[in-house]
Specification:
CATH class of the largest domain: Alpha Beta
Number of helices: 11
Strand content: 5-15%
Helix content: 40-55%
Number of domains: 2
Largest sheet: 5 strands, parallel
Order of helices and strands: HHEHEHHEHEHHEHHH
CATH superfamily of the largest domain: P-loop containing nucleotide triphosphate hydrolases
Radius of gyration: 21 Å
CATH topology of the largest domain: Rossmann fold
CATH architecture of the largest domain: 3-Layer(aba) Sandwich
Strand order of the largest sheet: 2-3-4-1-5
Shape: elongated
C-alpha cells in the first residue's frame, strides 16, 4: 500500500480537482474527467491493487464509487443497470423492468435522481466509475455508455477510471470522436520488480523476523516470480508455504 499511496493520492486529487475545475465548464461540449491507469500485463496483481485503490477512495466520503468488470457487463443495458444499482446500493433493483429499452429508462432515472439529490447542493458528489478490465469490454457498449454520460454532463458529474494494461489498448480500440468526450490524465503503477524489492526488504531480509530463507529457497521463490509473469502475489503465496 505504501508504494501505491502517492499514486492513489494523485488519482484522488485529479478526481476532485476535475470536479471543481472551471476549465471543464468552459468547453463547448462537456468532457468527462478520465483516469487512464496503465497497470502492465499482470492481471492477478491488478485485482489486488485495484481493490486497494477502491478502499482508499472509499475512505473519502464525497464520492459514489462503481466497480465494473467485463464478464458482468456485456451490454449497454448491463452497464447502466449495474451503475445504477451500485450508486443506489442495490435497494431499488425491483423498480426496473429489463427489456430492450430498459437502458434508456435507467439512464434517465439516474439523471433525474442525481439532479434531484443534489439540487442546489453546495457540494456535488461525483460518480466515479472504475472499468477494471477495459480491454475486454464490448467496445460498442462502452462507446454508447460514454456518449450517454457525455449528454448528461454537466448535470451529472461523472469521473471514469480506465484500468488498461497499456495505453495503446485505449487509443487503438476506441474511435476519435469517443476519445474526444474524455479529458484524460495518465497514471502508471510501479513495475513488478519494485514491489518484489519492497517485499524482500520488509519481509525476507528484515532483521526483525527470525525466519531466514536458505539461498536455495530464495532462488526457488525468484524462479516462481519470473515464471508466473512477474507476479508478486505468487511470490508472497510461495513464501507462506515454505
Amino acid at each position: 500500500m505504501n508504494l501505491n499511496l502517492k499514486i492513489f493520492e494523485k488519482i484522488k486529487e485529479f478526481i476532485f480537482q476535475s470536479d471543481e475545475s472551471s476549465r471543464f465548464l468552459e468547453l463547448p461540449k462537456q468532457e468527462i474527467p478520465t483516469v487512464i491507469l496503465s497497470t502492465g500485463l499482470n492481471l492477478v496483481d491488478h485485482k489486488l491493487i485495484l481493490t486497494l485503490l477502491c478502499d482508499y477512495l472509499k475512505n473519502h466520503e464525497h464520492l459514489h464509487l462503481v466497480r465494473l468488470i467485463s464478464s458482468e457487463n456485456p451490454s449497454l443495458t448491463a452497464i447502466v443497470r449495474n451503475v445504477l444499482l451500485q450508486v443506489l446500493a442495490c435497494e431499488h433493483e425491483k423498480e426496473f423492468q429489463y427489456d430492450l429499452k430498459a437502458s434508456k429508462r435507467e439512464i434517465n432515472y439516474l439523471s433525474s435522481w442525481y439532479k434531484k439529490r443534489y439540487f442546489e447542493a453546495k457540494n456535488v458528489i461525483p460518480i466515479v466509475i472504475l472499468f477494471e478490465d477495459l480491454q475486454t469490454f464490448s467496445v460498442q457498449a462502452v462507446c454508447e455508455f460514454l456518449t450517454q454520460c457525455s449528454i448528461m454532463q454537466p448535470d451529472v458529474k461523472f469521473v471514469f477510471v480506465f484500468n488498461v494494461p497499456l495505453l495503446q489498448n485505449v487509443v487503438q480500440k476506441y474511435p476519435g470522436h469517443i476519445l474526444s468526450l474524455l479529458a484524460t490524465e495518465k497514471f502508471g503503477l510501479h513495475p513488478p520488480h519494485v514491489y518484489l524489492d519492497d517485499i524482500i526488504e520488509k519481509v525476507c531480509i528484515n532483521p526483525a523476523y527470525r525466519f531466514f530463507l536458505h539461498s536455495s529457497s530464495f532462488a526457488y521463490l525468484l524462479d516462481r516470480f519470473t515464471s508466473y509473469e512477474l507476479c508478486f502475489s505468487t511470490f508472497t503465496e510461495s513464501y507462506k508455504t515454505l
